[in-house]
Each structure stands twice: as C-alpha cells, then as structure tokens.
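User: Is it possible to get a 3D structure for a protein together with its bound compound? The compound here is N-(aminocarbonyl)-beta-alanine. I've pasted both below.
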Amino acid sequence: MSVLIKGGTVVTAGKTRRADVLCDNGKIVEVGPGIDAPAGADVIDAGGQYVMPGGIDPHTHMQLPFMGTVASEDFYTGTAAGLAGGTTMIIDFVIPNPQQRLMEAYEQWREWAEKAVADYSFHVAVTWWDDTVSDDMETLVRDHGVNSFKHFMAYKGAIMATDEILVNSFMKAVELGAITTVHAENGDLVYRLQQKIYDMGITGPEGHPLSRPPEVEGEAANRAIRIAEVLNCPLYVVHVSCRQALEAITRARNEGQRVFGEVLAGHLLVDDSVYRDPDLERAAAHVMSPPFRSPEHQVALWRGLKAGNLQTTATDHCCFCADQKAAGKDDFRLTPNGTAGIENRMEVLWHHGVSTGKLTLNEFVKVTSTNAAQIFNIYPRKGSVSVGADADLVVWDPAASKTISVKTHKQNVDFNIFEGMTVQGCASHTLSAGKVVFADGDLRVERGAGKYVNRPPFAPYYDALNRQAELATPTKVDR
Ligand code: URP
Ligand code: ZN
Ligand code: ZN
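Assistant: Yes, that's possible. Here is the predicted structure of the complex:
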C-alpha cells in the first residue's frame, strides 16, 4: 500500500522546500513537486504543514528493571506514545547486571522489545569487566548491529562503571569501531553526599538534587572526556544537564576531539524548583538523575543546543508511577530515578525552540532526528526525507495547539513533567515504515510492527585514524 503526502513543505537538516512525498513498501520512493497518486494510494493533505523525518529518541528505558522495580512503560505502550508525538524510532539500553553476560542481557531485551510498534535499536551498557565482556562486545558489534556502549559513572554499588572499566571498555570500543557513551556523574561523590544529606535529617525529595550538584556531573563528564582523549575514542555524553558538563564538552570539541552531547527536553524546560514542591508526591515524581537544575543551567543548555555543542535531544523516558516512587517516601535515596517525555519531546522543543526563534526549522530536524542518525550511523536510512530512506515521517501542523496533561497523554505513567503546558505545533500524522500509525489524535498501531535496526560500526574510519596515530608522534597530539 502506498501513501502520498501532498502539498506540504518538506523540511530536512539541509533544506526546506515545497514537495510531495510518496511512500511505498516501507520506503520513500519519490520526493518532488506534483507527484500523482498511484491507484489505491492513501493521500494525506499536508497543505500548510511541514513534512519532516520522524523523530529519533536516542535515550529511552522501556520496562527497565531498576532500583527494585520495573519501569511502567513497556516497548508497546512506549513506542506507541512516541508515535503520537512524531517520534518513530528509539534507541533503548540493554543494561546487564554486574556479572551477567552482555549477550544474555541483550537477548532478554530483544525479546522484550518484540512488541514494539516503532523501530528500535540498543546501546549496550558495560557494567563490569572481564574477558567475556570484551568477547561479547565484539559479538554485538560484529553480528548484532550494536555500535554504541554505555557506561554509568553513577549508581555506586549497582551498575557503576569505575575508571578501570571505562578504560578497558573504551579501548575495546576503539578496536571495534564503536562509540562510547556515558552517564556522567561521579558515583563516589553522589554516594557520600547522599549519606551526608540523609544523616542531616533531609530525607525527602529535596535531598535528591542536593546530593547531585552540577560539579559532580562536570567532574565526571570531564574525566570521561579526558580518558576518551587519551584513548582516541569517540564519546557521547548523555543527558547533559548543567553548564559544567557542557563546558567540558565545548572545550574538548574546540580542541578537535570527537565528543557529542545530548540534552533532554526536560532539562531544557523544567527547573529545580520542582523538588521544593510541598506536595511530596509531586516532588518525588521529578526525581531523576541528573536532577533538574536551576534556571541558569537551562539558559546554558539552550545556548549549547543553538551553538551545536549539544547535538541531540532525548527524553531518558523511564517511567515510574506514584506507587513505585513511594519506595523513597522516607528516604530519597530509594526513589526510583526516572521521568517520562517521549510523547512530548518534539512538541515542547518546537514550541520553546522553533516558535521562540531559538532553533530554525532545519536545526529542529537536526536535533530531533538527523544528528542522532548520523552519530549512531543509521543516516540516511533514518533522519532524512530522501528516496530509499525508511518512510518514517511526521506531518507537522504548526497551527495546531494542545495543552499537555496526564489526563490525555498516551504514556503509561500517572504523571507528566510538562503538565499544563500549552504548545502550538504538533504532529497531525505519523508514518512508520510507510504506514499511517497516528492521524488526528488516533493511534493505529500494530503490536510487533516495529523492527530492530542494525547500526554498523565505524570501523574503516577508525582503522584509518589508528594507523595515522601510529605514524604520528608517540605522545599526545598537539593542539
Ligand atoms: O534518572 C534516570 N535518568 N533514570 C534512568 C537511568 C539513567 O540514569 O539514565
Ligand atoms: Zn542516566
Ligand atoms: Zn537513561
């Protein structure tokens, strides 16, 4: 079945033009003016609307087992909620328990994800180290389309990666042509601060940000960056929430290092006053790491996004309902960390980014899909509107408006961090693999229709880089 999107303005990372888009058999088969609808095609009237690549959320945690519970949003409900907001692909995380084989965890996550209604891929976390981890990294890159490995520098006593683990894993990633990613917070410092704050008698959600100040994030970001520099390893810093971490990334990029930064819609738009809410349930609903920050950090993050020092936007969609958050009611350290947002990322970024003039249309496309596709090596299959690309598209109505609410959202969680925010500009239609899966407020998804997306390694490039490094001076490259 083919679908013709007619009369819209096609926006990509590189240009904006009036064009129709014809999709057939899951792919984009023609882009240009005046395309005639083939017999039997579905025609979407996109007059007055934009046609853009579907969003890619490079940071989600569907049905994650975490902090003694399991995230409430699963791969079915979560990818469906994403489609309702114009996001057509997620990159989720396989997180092995320490001592668990990476391959075993990977197979488990693949099984959980079979019910997804949109395409998905996986970063795999390295939470411990021995020869089997190294072997499994190789198997994942060679045979399973994984090209990114994640390291949690926080969560001491659980999944935290020590410097030794970072060094071993980064070296292996370079050899394999994979990219490394980090959750940058100094886990030892967080652990000590949490203890100190709790012992002072601060047991409620306000203790959470106090135990994770921006310096703790800045230190870890800089440490990961410098380790990556020494090892000549590409690095992607997830959920950059503060000026200190952004400065570390910006400095390294100015020095020519291959470092990327991701910012969450939540960190751009929600500030730390939420932790002082007298309604403790509401305050706990905002517990996530790194925490929401004071407004000056939001100003810095928007600047980083505009300047291109932060390349991607994500949500870290990791949902826990009030009864789950209640685990921390007497001790903030036990509150499951995570907040939602996959359904709202594109519309809040449009409203606060494009409509305010902070982002151009093309920059919006870059930070919502194209840059993620390029960094994680699936471009132009994803993140483009071009012949041969997957027909994952969003038709965007800049005139439509809505007020975000837990009462109407499709996410499987009882809280929305953007509650009450009125946005102008939202998805009117979303196409996944050439099928209309969301139209005018209604989802038309098919369980299991989402496909696993292989992401090839960057091996030829890094082989060449390593050869160059061998030929150059044996010490650090001059800056
Ligand atoms: O609080 C968060 N971010 N929860 C999900 C796990 C992580 O750290 O990304
Ligand atoms: Zn994280
Ligand atoms: Zn996360």
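Residues 59, 61, 316, 318 surround zinc ion (ligand 3) (CB under 6 Å). The chain has one domain: 53-385+453-459.
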